[in-house]
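Both lines are retained for reference:
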Amino acid sequence: MLLIRGQQEEEDHVNKDQMAGKWHEFAGKVKAKWGDLTDDEMTEAEGHMEELAGKIQAKYGGTKEQILKDMNSL
């Protein structure tokens, strides 16, 4: 059982690393499209698409739905 738990912990660590890497890649694309976003705003919203869409909406206007659609196409 300990072997299985160790394997699961290792898989969880890899998944978190992969998710973090994907977020950083995505954040770079977001900043390229909406360049006025600050690093602090990106850090505050990290991993939370709705929150990030709200920050973009506050700076650029538009609807949250359209922003989320644009974000999904990156």
Q: What stands out?
A: The chain has four helices and no strands.
